[in-house]
Amino acid sequence: MLEALDGLPLDITLHKTTSGIAALLTGDKPGPTVMLRGDMDALPMPEDTGLDYASKVDNVMHACGHDTHVAMLAGAARMLSERKSSLPGRVLFMFQPGEEGYGGAEYMLDEGLLDVPPLADGTPSPISAAYAIHITSSMPAGMIGTKGGSVMASSDSFDIVITGKGGHASEPFRTFDPVPVTCEIVQAIQAMVTRRFDIFDPTVVTVTRLVAGTAYNVIPESARIQGTIRAISAKTRSSVHELIQRVADGVATAHGCNAETTVNLGYPVTVNDVPSADFGLDIAEALVGEKQVVRMPNPVMGAEDFSYVLEKLPGAMLFLGGTPHNKDPRTAAPNHSNRVMFEEDAMTTGMALYSSLALRTLGVTLD
Q: One of 267, 304, 308, 354 is an active-site residue; which one?
């Protein structure tokens, strides 16, 4: 990454707790600071695209398009550096690792990413807005979309351990069998979601792992349920945490078992500042035309640690279509597929969007 920035007029800070890079471009005219973020993870999965530039490391793949994000951000850094003499303010480029479950954004924030120094004459130049772009294989290449308000869900995990009394499978009456209790809890959680939450403030609770038993003729002493919780409001997120524990406790107690529930907090809801989202969509329309811009009606139920940035700064995450021209977005391999591919032409749009967001935020009128 540093090689891509080599020779540019950037003040570079290497973060200590991660491999994050903060690169500050200072224009020759005074003004505020705008931040642009690109994440640079790979995913622990095989790559089966057959591309010439496919990963050569086993079980490592840039499946979510993060390599395109940093390539677009580096391209924008180069484009904006060429305008340094006329730039009224500064651009902070946030090259962030660890988005895929490690909270790299939070680590960079904790290290003082937002504590930018004043200008050379001592004038403060705080960060006034922050923007991120995420490529997606679910939209045609070059299309841009976002919305104000909640744009991506929170992401938490849960772990329920049901403990009963084990014994021989031929004598269940001598046991407190945790297996049917586990099944009942799974069903009760689904009923909880459909009956306790407003469909216009939704949650998705998915059980992804069940573990019980060691032999076909032994009733185990314990069983385990694991899964994920998604919500698009802090209120619903908190309520789900409370109700999952209540449901598990109630069902287990009714059958003479005990349930111990742990909720592991993940990323919060990603909430776009409404004026910033509208601003980004206006810029997108100027770049690619109104027909190529989508004002998204609903949030995406995936999660993002750019949410931590948007808790501290006004800004927005925008989605960039990356489906190859010969693929149908409705059937194209999704972002986390081992076969996902992105149209490279879309990266030109992404670089232009990053650059335009920065310039317009700094008050530069674009032709």
A: 267
